[in-house]
Each structure stands twice: as C-alpha cells, then as structure tokens.
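Sequence design from tokenized structure. All designs in this work follow the same two-part layout: the structure record, then the generated sequence. An example of the structure record is given first.
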C-alpha cells in the first residue's frame, strides 16, 4: 500500500532531503513549512502546505485541519520546536489515522535544551564540554569559551571568546544562553536509528566542510570509541527513532579523546551520506514508524564514502513577492 507521509520543516536540509528520500521509496509525500518560500515546497511530485510556526497559537488547529483534509498515514517532523507540540497531539492525530514516532518528553527536553543536555551527559559520565549558565560565569572553564543559545540550531548566534568578561557581554546580547569550554578536533556527526526496544544503529561521518551549521561535505568512517560514546549519549537521553549526535575526536593527551557536544531528536542534515554508504536509513525508519521490526543488519555501512551537498535551482517564476 502506498504510504502518504507528511514531512514538516522542508525549508531546511533535513526535511528537504527526507522528503526526497521518501519519494525514492515510492511514498506519496506531503510537504509542510511555516515559510511559504521554503525550497522543499517546490519539490516535484509532492503536495505543498504552509503551516503556522510551532510557536504560534494557531499551530494545533492548523496541523489538525491539514491532517483531516489530506489524510496522511504518518507525520515526520524535522523541526525540534514542533516535537513537544506533536507529543501533546498524539491522541487527536491517531484519531485521524496519523501515525507518529516521537521520543518521550524527557528525551525531547534533553536534546532541545543544551544546558539540560550537558547536565544529563555529565550525570551519566559521558564526556561533554563543561557548561555553565550566565549566572555561573565565575565557574567558567579556563581557555577559549563558546557562548550559544540554549535552544539554538544551525550555528546561529554562536560566538567564541577569550575571557569570562567577554562571555558576560555576549550573554546579555543572546537571550537564554549558555557558556561552554571550546572544544577542537575532528568534528563528526552520528546518524542514528534507535528502535522501540532501545537498540541503536550508529553511522559515523566526519563533517569536513561546515557552513551555517550544515555539513556540506561528509565522509563516513568507523571508530569504536566514538561509536561507544554516541551509544552512551543515546542511552543517557533516552531518545528513540531517527536522530543525530555530534561531537569531536581529539588527538593528543586529552583526558577524553571523544567529546559529545549535542544531539538532535530528528534526522541530521547530512544523513544522505548514510544512504550513499549503503545503509537503508530511511527505509528502516519507515519500518519503525509503522510498528515493524527494524532490521539493523540493513543499517551497516561502508567507511570512506564522501558526500558533497550543493545548492540548486528548483524553479523560477514571475510575479510579485509577498
């Protein structure tokens, strides 16, 4: 039976590429975004919809109205602020025949709040950058510091500074910020799929060229220690479904060779590297979504596969801008 999948957040790389991947698996794809100019709304052979932002009071009614009219079999969100709203809508969505696969609230909060994430990993003994809140700057680690939003994404409003005084000024400019030690090394992302029983498959890739927080060039690799740390982070947060974990591999005399910096309870922007390396990542994601057993043997992959992303023109048109 042809599955009708609603993918939200198609203005970003995760949603855009997820919609394309589902099309290749012969799904009927409905796309949605809060931005009427989102690139994914222009994908051929999809049905485009504009939804209110997840923070808008009209989001709940807008989403339920869309689902009642379009009747998707499932919804896959790539917008993290949507996840708590979707969690609260599981019952009305199910009443409309819409399947969801969402982490529990604690996992969503652990992944969506960088201060909470650091606390959870520290509690479970998973190496992560030392992190303080603005009112704790007297406990900030020595050396370079990173100031970033607690709930940010896409490397927006992320700054590196040299002193706690500079960090204090940045914290005044960035609402709800955190301060972390600056970690260097080989940056990587793990594209993960955690089934309902908690078993995880982990696909590692180096982030060779990063622009605006998105890996434009990735190369798959294997590293038992990095994989072990990623699995520990998944266990600590309790996240399930398709997700991604980021970190650094440090060389030299570091106390911890692998440091985990964040996790996202959604597919990563570079997950097509996993597909190119032979992992049936989206296919097995669909199996788990529709309550079938995930075949982790289909999620093995080849190392040293390089994926390069690029910007393309989807369509041109004439008319007035909105």
């Amino acid at each position: 039976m042809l599955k009708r999948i609603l993918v939200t957040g198609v203005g970003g790389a995760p949603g855009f590429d997820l919609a394309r991947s589902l099309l290749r698996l012969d799904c009927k794809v409905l796309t949605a975004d809060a931005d009427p100019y989102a690139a994914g709304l222009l994908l051929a052979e999809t049905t485009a919809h504009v939804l209110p932002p997840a923070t808008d009071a009209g989001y709940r009614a807008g989403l339920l109205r869309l689902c009642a009219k379009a009747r998707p079999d499932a919804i896959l969100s790539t917008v993290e602020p949507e996840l708590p709203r979707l969690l609260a809508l599981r019952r009305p969505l199910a009443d409309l025949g819409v399947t969801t696969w969402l982490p529990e609230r604690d996992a969503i909060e652990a992944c969506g709040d960088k201060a909470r994430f650091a606390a959870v990993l520290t509690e479970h003994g998973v190496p992560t950058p030392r992190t303080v809140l603005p009112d704790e700057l007297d406990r900030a680690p020595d050396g370079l510091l990173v100031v970033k939003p607690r709930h940010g994404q896409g490397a927006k409003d992320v700054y590196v500074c040299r002193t706690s005084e500079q960090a204090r000024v940045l914290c005044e400019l960035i609402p709800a910020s955190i301060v972390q030690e600056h970690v260097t090394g080989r940056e990587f992302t793990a594209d993960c799929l955690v089934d309902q029983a908690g078993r995880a498959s982990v696909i590692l890739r180096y982030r060779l060229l990063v622009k605006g927080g998105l890996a434009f060039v990735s190369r798959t690799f294997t590293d038992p220690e990095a994989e072990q740390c990623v699995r520990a982070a998944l266990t600590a947060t309790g996240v399930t479904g398709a997700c991604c974990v980021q970190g650094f591999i440090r060389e030299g005399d570091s106390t911890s060779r692998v440091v985990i910096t964040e996790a996202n309870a959604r597919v990563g922007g570079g997950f097509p590297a996993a597909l190119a390396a032979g992992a049936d990542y989206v296919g097995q994601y669909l199996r788990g979504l529709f309550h079938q057993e995930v075949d982790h043997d289909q999620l093995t992959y080849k190392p040293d596969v390089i994926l390069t992303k690029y910007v393309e023109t989807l369509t041109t048109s004439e008319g007035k801008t909105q």
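The radius of gyration is 20 Å. We note this feature because it recurs in several other targets discussed in the main text.
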